[in-house]
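Hey, can you fold this one?
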Amino acid sequence: MSVDLAPEKHAAIECWTADPCGAVPGEPGTPDYARRLVAARREYAPWMAEALDYAGARGLDVLDVGCGQGIDLIGYAQAGATVTGIDLTPRHVELAQRHLAAFGLSGDVAVADAESMPFPDASFDRVSSNGVLHHTPDMGAALREIHRVLRSGGQARIILYNRHSLHYAIGQVGWHGLMRGGLRREGSMAKVLSTSVEKTSIGARPLVRVYTPAEVRTELERAGFAGVRTFVRHFRWEDIGWRPLKTRAPAFRSRIGATAGWYVVGIGSTDRAGE
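Sure. Predicted structure:
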């Protein structure tokens, strides 16, 4: 990857080289680790498989932008899609390839930048990007690239951090920003997020942004997408420092997640026939 990358991108590579995204106990790249990785995702966010529509991708050419260790590539490939993944971090690419192989699956995975992708126009039926584009300096450029590589009638499914979430308001602004003095030390919530959201063992500070559902809709529409819709998901009590009685938690937690969850899902389509 070019040494001319923006500092924020170098920080992201450093972070996820040292601590691959979604890491679980075990030896990365082994079949046992791959199974644990997928199981951990299902436990953490069981709603993601439906939000990303694995089941509806059968027979499609799917690109995963920022594929991490390959969890979504595995999900799409198991559903019958032909999968391609890109990631800025070479370590992620290596692990995604090994984890696909651990499940007996195949796919093309390469090091590439979401803001300048190495694919011809109209290469894919579906593009997915899960928890990635809030780390890139120019998300608008990345969304335009996603639109460019989609075929007529193709669909993008994007997941980003939600500014209008309880996690952000209470866990990030309230706890890390105010109670722990992050705002006083750092001077902005953007800098607080770079130290409080992503796991790092080396003090890396990747860019972390948050977006409202309205902002996600606007960004997708500016990139050329039509029929855009958004919704929110995901709430955990521990994200706001509270653990209620388990007998009350599941249904109530789900309702909160649908109104003030930590993730915004944005879906948009393109039809080049009308351009």
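The first strand starts at residue 61 and ends at 65. Let me know if you want another pass with a different chain boundary.
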